[in-house]
Amino acid sequence: MFRKYYFLLAFLLVSHVGYSLSKDEDKENTVTISGDMTLEKYQTFEITISQKKITAVIFKNCFGGNSLAGLRFAQAIKNNSINTIASGPVISACAFAYLGGLVRHIDSSNKDNVIQLHGAFDAASGQPVGSIKNQEFLNIYSRLIGFKFMKTTEDIILNTKKPYEGIYFVRTTVDDRLQDLTLYCNGDTEPDFKKCRKLEGITFETEGITTK
C-alpha cells in the first residue's frame, strides 16, 4: 500500500502540486495543503487567514518538508482555532502541522489514510539531526502548540535515524469496515506494514491524533 504513496510523492514534487482552496469540500472557509511543506506555503496561508475566516485545513497527500514551516502552520492553526482533517498520507512536517488543529479528524471518504511522525533530517546533508535537536524541537512544539506526545512516540521521534523510520498511524477501509493500526517501521526499507511492529496501547485517540 505504501509504495504507491512514495510514487505519488515523486509526482507531486516534480509537478509542484501544493496550496489551494479545497476542491473536496468546496467551501470558501476551507484550505487544502498538499505536496511538500514549505515556508512559502506558510506565508501564503498567513496572508489568507489575515484576510478571511478559515475554519478548516485539509492536509491531503501531504508529504512533509520544512520542519519550521510545519511548526508555523501548527501555531497559526492553533492560534486561530482552526479544525484540521488528514486525508491520504500526511507525513512528517505535515503531520506536525495537522496536530495544531482545534478538532482533528481523518477523512472518512478516503479509504487509505496514514499519518507518520519521525525526527528531523538536515536539509543539506540528509543526515538525522540527532536526539538533542529533536528534543529541542519537541520542547518548542509543546510550548507553542500545547501538544505532548506519549513516551513511546516521543522516543521514536527523538531517535530517528533513517528516512522511512517512524511511527505510523494507519486508518484503512477493508470490506467497508474501518481498521486502525499503529506501527513502528525501522526504516531499513520502504515501509511494508506487514513487516512493521504493531504498537499496543497507542491509538489515534490515546495519542491525540484525532479528537473525535
List keywords for this structure.
212 residues, nine-stranded mixed beta sheet, 9 strands, globular, disordered N terminus
Provide structural commentary:
This protein is of the alpha/beta class. It is 34% helix and 28% strand. The chain contains 7 helices and 9 strands. Strands 1, 2, 3, 4, 5, 6, 7, 8 and 9 form a 9-stranded mixed sheet that branches. Strand 7 and strand 8 form a beta hairpin. Helix 2 (39-51) packs parallel to helix 3. The longest helix is centred in the middle third of the chain and has 15 residues, at 131-145. The protein is globular, with a radius of gyration of 16 Å. The protein starts with a helix and ends in a 5-residue tail after the last helix. Mean pLDDT is 88; it is low at 1-26.
- DSSP helix fraction: 25-40%
**How many helices does DSSP assign?**
7
Q: Structural class of the secondary elements?
A: alpha/beta
Q: How much of the residues is beta strand, in percent? A: 25-35%
Give the ordered list of helices and strands: HEEHEHEHEEHHEEEH
Poorly predicted runs: 1-26
Largest sheet: 9 strands, mixed
How far apart the termini lie comes to 25 Å
Rg over C-alpha atoms, rounded to the nearest angstrom: 16 Å
Number of strands: 9
Approximate shape: globular
Summarize the structure.
The chain is 34% helix and 28% strand.
